[in-house]
Structure to design on (314 residues):
């Protein structure tokens, strides 16, 4: 067995975020590679479990000499659910405030979710990390880099934004799909079918998802946590936090942004705006990519991320 084929060590556990005045949160994580190597922290997006960070990506980075950590955000996967917490304001009212660039009252904020990421780093013994975030995870990652620069070596951002006014404007087909009436008391298979269709709608025209692999991933995610309320609280966190443009402008870490031209959720103009906000950020627009991480682009992702890691280490 050559080096490229050797099994990558993997470990799982729970980190804890306990702060006075805040609900305690338990965060499930998985590590790849040696803990003595430079750490790469992967932060996933809204309603998305850590499994959506491709295992192939995690293992390849580990083979290249990095300690890779992916985790479930609060209210998703195997991490704590903050049941009973909800925003008191109506969704339309909060959306109006979001479009005006104003924050709203919320059960918790993206700043709280950034503190979860710090708790994971503390637990795995990583004083600092290359932080890579996707979608909402990219928003959390921006706050990490802006507010905790001593913990961040570099920043990798996939299809995200600074929650500027009108930044999150899903295309009509996405709005129509999610407006469909769900069946009452759906079965496991019906919910998994809905998962699969939702991710298919997120893919770009050049990078359709592999249906069998996607179904297996959706089955695994449903079996880990079928709760639909947690992602709504995560959405509250995005809406309630409001614009983080001022934070993005304070980032002084090497940053690479990867955004698909076909992203139906966070349009490519948002990635372009973010690249202007973050000093020195490098923007890669991938023609035909949507709001997913296609496996066929794995080599490209690894190349761009590791080049950015090297900028931090230079």
């Amino acid at each position: 067995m050559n080096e490229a084929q050797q099994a990558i060590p993997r470990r799982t556990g729970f980190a804890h975020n306990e702060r006075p005045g805040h609900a305690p949160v338990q965060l499930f994580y998985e590590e790849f590679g040696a803990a003595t190597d430079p750490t790469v922290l992967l932060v996933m997006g809204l309603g998305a479990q850590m499994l959506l960070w491709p295992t192939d990506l995690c293992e390849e980075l580990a083979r290249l000499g990095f300690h890779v950590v992916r985790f479930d955000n609060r209210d998703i996967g195997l991490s704590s659910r903050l049941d009973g917490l909800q925003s008191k304001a109506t969704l339309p009212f909060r959306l109006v405030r979001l479009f005006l660039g104003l924050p709203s009252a919320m059960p918790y904020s993206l700043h709280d979710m950034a503190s979860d990421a710090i708790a994971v780093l503390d637990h795995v013994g990583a004083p600092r990390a290359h932080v890579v975030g996707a979608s909402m995870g990219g928003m959390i990652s921006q706050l990490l880099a802006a507010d905790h620069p001593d913990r961040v070596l570099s920043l990798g951002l996939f299809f995200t934004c600074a929650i500027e006014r009108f930044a999150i404007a899903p295309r009509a087909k996405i709005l129509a799909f999610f407006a469909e009436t769900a069946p009452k008391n759906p079965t496991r298979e019906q919910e998994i079918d809905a998962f699969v269709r939702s991710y298919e709608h997120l893919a770009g025209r050049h990078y359709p998802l592999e249906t069998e692999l996607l179904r297996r991933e959706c089955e695994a995610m449903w079996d880990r946590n079928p709760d639909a309320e947690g992602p709504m609280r995560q959405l509250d966190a995005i809406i309630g936090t409001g614009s983080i443009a001022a934070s993005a402008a304070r980032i002084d870490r090497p940053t690479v942004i990867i955004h698909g031209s076909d992203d139906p959720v966070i349009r490519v103009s948002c990635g372009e705006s973010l690249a202007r906000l973050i000093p020195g950020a490098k923007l890669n627009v991938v023609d035909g990519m949507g709001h997913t991480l296609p496996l066929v682009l794995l080599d490209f992702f690894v190349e761009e991320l590791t080049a950015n890691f090297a900028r931090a280490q230079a």
